[in-house]
Every structure is written in structure tokens, then in C-alpha cells.
Specification:
- The chain has about 375 residues and is an alpha/beta fold.
- It contains twelve helices and 13 strands.
- The strands form three sheets. It has a seven-stranded mixed sheet with strand order 2-8-7-6-5-3-4, with helices on both faces.
- Helix 4 links the parallel strand 3 and strand 4.
- Helix 1 runs antiparallel to helix 8 and helix 9 runs parallel beside helix 12.
- The longest helix has 20 residues.
- It is globular and about 70 Å long.
- The mean pLDDT is about 95.
Length: about 375
Amino acid sequence: MIYANYAATSPRLDGAIVKELCLWLNETHLAAARNFDSLEAGAVALRARKAAAKLFGAPDLLKVIFTSGATQSLNMAINGLVRPGCHVLASSLEHNSCARPLEALRKSGFIQLDWVPCAADGSLDCDFVRRAIKKNTRLLVMTHASNVLGTILPVEECSKIAGEHGLFFILDAAQTAGVLPVSLGGGRDVIAFTAHKGLGALAGSGGLVIGDEAAREMRPWILGGSGSASHSLSQPDFTPDKFEAGTQNAIGVLSLAVAIEEIISTGVEKIREKEAALTAIFIEGLREIKKVKIHGTGDARRCTAVVSASFQGFDSGVAARLLFEKAGVVTRSGLHCSPLAHKTAGTYPGGTVRFSFGRGTAREEIDAILAAVRAL
């Protein structure tokens, strides 16, 4: 098998993660803050908060909140920060984990919603964001990089624009955490991330990194036991307890701690350099193959290690199936849970074949994938 679907999930856990998970499972699996024997789980959560705060440039590690992944994180942040009648802006590249909760709020009449248009290659002119802001705009939501086109959006500038207008800024870093530098821009910023993609940790875990003002304004979406302030029927108003009701996914949090520590040790810049080099080789190789069209910028410096392509004469699903059956190449075809991005790119409704690479991808695999595409 040649794996080229890192944008969906990393195919295997690093050996260091597996070792620590096995040690922890053999010793204890008790919940944090519930009894005297669960101090180890609490220590795991603290370790993971410290690592995530360092990776995402968060000044307060208690503003790192653990969730089941980016989808839950985005739902929590969006529903927690909107108010009746407010106006929300989001890019036309958003994944359904962001687009669906926003559309549900719009359909119910709770919010006004506008999609800021991106170009067909996924690039975004920040002036479009400025011009779309209204008097009642409260929230700007944006993916850091498209899961379809790989295009990296100008999120630093958009965060500044949001700050200048007093908006809250939610960044979907599902595709970029552990792959590109991602940093909390200010007190009104929120970063949503998942564990199982670029971070290389267990699926079913992830989190939020929340600025001070956002943490104060954000209403908790899930209420319940927190192991603290148990005398009150109200959810605690301090972080992280305000947003972490219920029993924590301790083993997922441990996997996050180890994975992030490994990434910090390696260096995000080094990871990015390797992935960009492989992506550049792949794009150049695809350009030489007739009947293959590359979607997106076609520039490895402006995208993550994600390349979407369409094959003349082939349905995307058929092409992906043949690549797997004939050469063992694992890709992802269709609309990739992002119809907005495909409409932006002009590839709706047929979709594309998406190739995506990661830290475990070897140069030889790039060559083998290109050979399989040529044969097809």
C-alpha cells in the first residue's frame, strides 16, 4: 500500500506515542479529578496543555481545551460566540464541520451569514473580507488551508482585520496543526485543531486554544460534571472547566501530549520543508502527464501537502479505485466533505482525486504514485 491520504488521517502512530500509551494503559486509566488514584490522568492533561500552549503560542495553558476533534471544537466555538441577529463571515473554502453549523444557525434565523469568495485556485483577497464586514458583524471563521486544494489562506492578516473591527476570529487548523506554524493572534482569537492529521495522534481527540476575551464571551456548549465547583448547579466560569464537562478522553490527550512534544522537538519548519519539497516534485510530475488537470495554486510554497486533480475521461471515484486496485495507491475522491470548496474550484459535483502527503511519505512513494497515474 502507498498511502496518500494524510489530509484525512495519519496512517500510523509514532513509536514513541505507542510506547507511552502502552505504559499508561498498563498502569492506570482512571479519570482526572474524580478520585485519589487519578492524579496521573490529571498530570497527562497538564502535560498536554503545556505542549499545545507552546505549539500554538498560547500565553495561558489553561485556555487549552480538549475535545473529540476539530468538528466538536468548531461547533463549540461557533455556537458559543454567536448572538441572536449577529452577522458572521466565513470563507468559501470551509469544510462541512464549519459550514454546517453556520448554515443551521442561518436557516433558523439566529444569524446572518455571508461566504467571502475565494478565487478558483483557493486564494483569498483580504479586501473582500474588509468590504464584507457590517455594523453587526461579530465573527469571522476561516480555514487555515483548504482540505481540497491545499491553498493556504492569509490568516494572519485576516486575524488583524478581525481585531481592528472588534470581531472574534475562529481559525480551523485541522489541516495545518503540526504542519504549518499556527499561533494565537490575540485575545479574541480561537484555534480549533484535531489530533489525527498533521499532529499524528489518536483519532477522537483534539481541542481549542482560546484567547482571554473569547474565553470570557464564549458560552459553554456542553454542560455537566467537571470535578470542580460541585456545590453549584451552574457550570464553572473558569477555564478549562467551563468547557470540559464530562469524562475526558485521557488516552487521546496523552497521545496529543507525546505527538506535540515530538513535533516541537523536530521543528514545524523542518516538517514543512520536507512536505513542501515532496509536494513540489509531485506537482511537477503531474504537469508532465497528459489528461491530468491540477486544481489549486500549483505552487508548493502556497499550499500544504495536498494536491487535487481531475483525470480526463475518468470519474474521480473510478480513477481513485483504479489507482488502488492496480498500484495500491490510497487517495481520497469525491467532494471531501467540502462542497463549498469544490464549487469555488469549479469541480462540483464530480469532485476530484486528492493526493495528500505527510511526515511518513518517502520520495520513492511520490515516484511510484506518479508512475501509477501515468499508467492509468
